[in-house]
Amino acid sequence: MSRRAALVTALLEALRKTNVLSVSMSQAAAVRIGINTTDLHCLNLLSEGPLTASELARRAGITTASVTGVIDRLESVGYVRRERDDADRRKVVVTLVLERAAVDVAPVFMPLLKAWRESLSEYSDEQLEVITDFMSRTQAVFQDEVEQMRAGPSS
């Protein structure tokens, strides 16, 4: 095996292990917060900004019926609120309640963020640019693959 092939193999294995740990981290964080992993996933999506219920369902990969239960649970504990869409009053927009998330959710992830910042401090600006580019490309690959999987079996 060439050096490049070995490096690519090692990197792909590291990505696989990171994904496994990410799932474990989400499960542990959800337990700590007192919600389930789907609810935590939806909170994470809502941290990027308000979404309609149907858009939240689409991005989370769950049915619109399931997202209603998620929103009900998260609203009942104060993590989200429903609001009418100003542009289309028939639509409901779900908004993260930042104050509540800051109290209950953010502290669970602060140790992880601190550890990441510390580990990143060892890299030069140029190395951080390469890592950031790689992560952006990785996210694009994930997004494409998720869309392909949701579209159905490959031909």
UniProtKB/TrEMBL annotation:
Superkingdom: Bacteria
Domain HTH marR-type span(s) in chain numbering: 4-140
Listed Pfam families: MarR_2
InterPro entries the UniProt entry points to: ArsR-like_HTH, HTH_MarR-typ, MarR/SlyA-like
UniProt-listed PANTHER family: TRANSCRIPTIONAL REGULATOR, MARR FAMILY (PTHR33164), TRANSCRIPTIONAL REGULATORY PROTEIN (PTHR33164:SF106)
Protein name as it appears in the record: MarR family winged helix-turn-helix transcriptional regulator
Natural source organism: Nonomuraea guangzhouensis
